[in-house]
Design goal:
Length: 115
């Protein structure tokens, strides 16, 4: 299971019933995240108390579903992430408990040639 660095992740701001599996979550991608479940992007769904998260993505042959349950604590507030797509690297940080609303990114460098 490898996710490319260019893959985008989209976080659902609304809590989702964690009893849903692949088919149920895939049906929520379009109405809740305005995305295409078959795009290869990662779609992130959280429980109401933010102690459970499910990741859904398509990889050419089928869907992957990853599930994480925290034994202590809660995932950071997803509102900031839900307002924009995040990179897979940012997603992993968020899953580790890093509050991305308190971080800043380096400016993007638009290079056109090597000096």
């Amino acid at each position: 299971m490898m996710l490319g660095g260019s893959a985008k992740a989209y976080v659902c701001a609304e809590p989702v019933d964690m009893r849903k599996s692949i088919d149920g979550l895939a049906q929520l991608v379009a109405p809740l995240l305005r995305g295409d479940a078959f795009s290869g992007s990662v779609f992130v769904f959280l429980s109401r108390r933010r102690e459970k998260v499910k990741l859904l993505w398509w990889d050419r042959h089928g869907f992957w579903l990853a599930y994480k349950r925290l034994e202590c604590g809660r995932f950071p507030d997803p509102q900031v992430l839900a307002s924009r797509g995040v990179t897979v690297a940012e997603l992993w940080l968020w899953l580790e408990g890093v509050d991305l609303s308190r971080t800043r990114r380096l400016a993007v460098v638009n290079a056109i040639r090597i000096a």
